[in-house]
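Q&A log
Question type: sequence-to-structure
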Amino acid sequence: MDAHTMQAWRRGSSLNGVEGFLRNPTPFREDPRLHACIVCASISCPDVRTEAYTVEKIDEQMTDQMTKFLSNPKKGMSLDKGSKTVTLSPIFTWFASDFIAAAGSVKAFILPFIADEDAAAFIRSNDVTLKYFDYNWNLNGAAPCHC
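Response status: OK
Response body:
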């Protein structure tokens, strides 16, 4: 194991411990896109990626994950132009400090990851209200066994 893997393992061998290390990867700076990449497999979580993250493609993969998450109007982001309301995953309020630290505001953070250019332009040019979806912690599919 390399030194960074050992540091992660020492901080905790549970999945929660690994997530904690990834959220605070001392001496490195956290990348808030991580919130679209580490998922708990609940219905409201970002979708699990269908390929492994690799060193060569990690930046592209993390951007893609955040973009796909925000493109899902049931759990990532939904825009109601009539009421000027953007509804987001509660992940964006639970970890708001991460997004604010990276971009100055949650709104500023999400803008580069909104695939729909019209929606991004509307959000950019209007004083929108942020709301948050209810979170569904149920498993996003049938459990493979009853262990």
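Response note: The chain has a mean pLDDT of 86.
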